[in-house]
Amino acid sequence: MTAFLETYKTFDHDKVIPMYISPTVIAVQKGNPKNIRGFDDLLKKDVTIIVTDGKGIYNTSGTGTWEDVAGRKGKLSDIAGFRKNIVGYTLGSGAGFKAFKETKADAWLTWPNWPISNAKDMDMVYIDKDRVIWRDLNMVVSPRADPETQDFLDFLITEKAQKIMKTEGWQR
Question: Which pLDDT does position 158 carry in this prediction?
Answer without folding.
Answer: 96
